[in-house]
Amino acid sequence: MSRFHAPCPLVIGTVCDLPEATVRHMQVHRLQPGDAVDVFNGEGGVYRVRIAHMSRQGIAVEVLAHEATECEPTRAVHLAVAMPANDRMDWLVEKATELGVHRISPLMSARSVLKLEGERALKKQAHWQAIAANACAQCGRNRVPRIEAPMRLDHWLDQHPRAEPWAVLSLQAQRHAADALATPKWANARQLTWLLGPEGGFTSTEEQQALAAGAEALSLGRRVLRVETAAIAALVTSVTPH
């Protein structure tokens, strides 16, 4: 059964027009009126719908039923990551979504190669949010992780909540992430955040700023990992399957 993301209200027993982005994705599947597909709007569960009408301009569906099924992890994991360049951020968003990430904050730090501001930043945010939605359609998730607009590290540190456990990944850290996650503070946390630097890592000043803001310095081992590899490794060590 084909699955599509449709960020719009879906009410059983009604006929509704699907958003333009959803229509574009469905059109390439050569579906026909009368075909049944699964649609999720990101608010929980999945809807079975039947195509009532379709044209080049749009698709209307009849909403038949709702199944309150979820495959979310029991722990909400937030990745705050200095954006890698080229298409590696696309890959990071896709794979992190498949593995159950709750939120991603793209950051810019002193050593970041990729700098995004204004309209360009908003376009990238929309691009990554679409990647996350498509990854959810593929992997079976019914809740789309939030991809935030790119932000400077210092601004993010000022806004980040202090209540949840969070860590800055550092090659200089003496404590391994796996050891921290075995302690009650981390093991019992319903949400946590990983802060990851760019290629070359955060500067010593940036790392000290993170520690002063409440982060704990943790390590993933002695090997130097690419940003996207470190992000996925941190996510996998901390996501508890549903």
Characteristics:
5-stranded mixed sheet; Ribosomal Protein L25, Chain P; 8 helices; 7-stranded parallel sheet; 12 strands; Alpha/beta knot; alpha/beta; 33% helix; 242 residues; single chain; 2 domains
Q: How does this model look, in words?
A:
With about 240 residues, this protein is of the alpha/beta class. The protein folds into 2 domains: about 5-65, Ribosomal Protein L25, Chain P (Beta Barrel), CATH 2.40.240.20; about 75-240, Alpha/beta knot, CATH 3.40.1280.10. The chain has 8 helices and 12 strands. It has helices at about 20-25, 90-100, 120-140, 155-160, 175-180, 185, 205-210, 225-240, and strands spanning about 5, 15, 35-40, 45-55, 60-65, 75-80, 105-110, 145, 150, 165-170, 190-195, 215-220. The strands form 2 sheets. Strands 6, 7, 8, 9, 10, 11 and 12 form a 7-stranded parallel β-sheet that branches. A 5-stranded mixed β-sheet has the order 1-3-4-5-2. A hairpin with a 4-residue loop joins β4 and β5 (about 60-65). The longest helix is centred in the middle third of the chain and has 22 residues, at about 120-140. It is elongated, with a radius of gyration of 20 Å. It starts with a strand and ends with a helix. The mean pLDDT is about 90.
* CATH homology superfamily name of the largest domain: SPOUT methyltransferase, trefoil knot domain
Q: Structural class of the secondary structure composition?
A: alpha/beta
What fold name goes in the CATH topology slot of the largest domain?
Alpha/beta knot
Strand content: 15-25%
CATH architecture heading of the largest domain: 3-Layer(aba) Sandwich
Give the ordered list of helices and strands: EEHEEEEHEHEEHEHHEHEH
- Oligomeric composition of the shown chains: single chain
Count of DSSP-assigned helices: 8
CA radius of gyration is 20 Å
Helical content (DSSP H or I, runs of 4+) = 25-40%
Overall average residue pLDDT: 92
Largest sheet entry:
7 strands, parallel
Strands, count: 12
Write down the CATH class of the largest domain: Alpha Beta
Uncertain runs are none
Distance between the termini: 23 Å
Any idea what the shape is?
Answer: elongated
Summed up, the domain count is 2
